[in-house]
Amino acid sequence: MPEARPPLPPFTEETARQKVRAAEDAWNTRDPDRVVLAYSEDTRWRNRAEFPVGREEVRRFLQRKWARELDYRLIKELWAFGGSRIAVRFAYEWHDDSEQWFRSYGNENWEFDAQGLMVRRYASINDLPIARADRKYHWPLGRRPDDHPGLSELGL
After folding, report:
1. Which of 8, 41, 121, 125 is the most exposed place for a label (fewest CB within 10 A)?
2. How many CB atoms lie within 10 A of CB 129?
3. What is the bridge-based pairing of β-strands 39-47 and 70-82?
4. How far apart are CA 93 and CA 102, in angstroms?
5. Overall average pLDDT of the 7-18 stretch
6. What is the pLDDT of residues 32-61, one digit of tens each?
7. DSSP for 100-141?
8. CB of 118 within 8 A of CB of 94?
9. Burial class of residue 19 (count of CB atoms within 10 Å of its CB; 0-12, 13-18, 19+)
10. Are 104 and 127 in contact (CB under 8 A)?
11. pLDDT at 3
12. Mean pLDDT of the chain
């Protein structure tokens, strides 16, 4: 039996918000070994045109992602929830190796098992090139500070 990853479904508004923030915090570490622990061994993803299945494929996907998306900073926001499912919207900022900055916008639909592990993740993402001066995420790499505005407060 896998170790539980609270909060567990069925989600309330409070526990759904906790799950979203926990995911944001983990992804902001940019540590594939840590991030994959939130997913079931047989997790199924759709991320743009990639369809990783299982923790090991997800780990390799994340390694490639963060090797390309430099100085990555992410904000997630709860959109909807019910039972074992959560929908989020997100935006993250990053730059490539030529110093071109981007803000990537997207939506994710998540489904969890009884242990709170994500079994399905469906993401739709669009990238917008931005000028360095148009960046909105300026905290040090890592967890977004509690007093930093979220997506709604930033007008995103």
Report:
1. 41
2. 11
3. unpaired
4. 6
5. 98
6. 999 999 999 999 999 999 999 999 999 999
7. -EEEEEEEEEEEE-TTS-EEEEEEEEEEEEE-GGG----SPS
8. no
9. buried
10. yes
11. 85
12. 97
Do residues 35 and 61 lie in contact, with contact meaning Cβ atoms separated by under 8 Å?
Answer: no
Residue 94's DSSP bridge partners are: 102
Length of the chain: 156
CB 139 within 8 A of CB 145: yes
Q: What mean pLDDT is predicted for residues 119-141?
A: 98
Phi and psi, residue 136, nearest 5°: -120, -10
E-strand ranges in 9-117 read 39-47, 70-82, 85-95, 101-112
CA distance readout (Å), 87 to 13, 76, 94: 12, 10, 23
Instruction: Check if the beta carbon of residue 11 is closer than 8 Å to that of residue 113.
Output: no
Range 65-92 average pLDDT: 98
pLDDT at res. 65: 98
